[in-house]
Amino acid sequence: ASGLIFTLNSEYRDFEHDRNEALKKLRGLPEKPTAAEIAESSDCSRCRSYFYKSGPVCAHCKREDVLLKYKQHIVTHKRHSKQIVSSLAAVNSDSHKLGTIEDQFEDELEVKQFVEAEVDGSLVMVMKVLRAFCNR
Questions:
Q1: How far apart are CA 28 and CA 120, in angstroms?
Q2: pLDDT at residue 96 tops 50
Q3: What span, in angstroms and rounded, lies between the C-alpha atoms of 79 and 66?
Q4: Other CB atoms closer than 10 Å to residue 123's CB: what's the count?
């Protein structure tokens, strides 16, 4: 029981901290972005990487990091997969005769990561353990 109590206290402290940080970031959002924030976002190396931007990470992406950290207490991802996605709407059904899709559309493909499954995060897992412990 003492190990469970320690785990619960530790997990709850982490959860509370991450929740408070997320709330601070959300409450600090201005109603309209300033010209400086717009300029910073337009050159962000993370959210504008597809335009080959190389500026510092914008405030929006930094806020997202805090929110994702909080979200991990609630849900997390079981596994990720990468899939090749064509920018074309459809591929001819006879394309297998011409080689692989990668060969045909080499410049029009991109690799994207897809979340396969969301599973319970640490807080939810601990709550389930606690419920099972109390019900035995």
A1: 29
A2: no
A3: 21
A4: 20
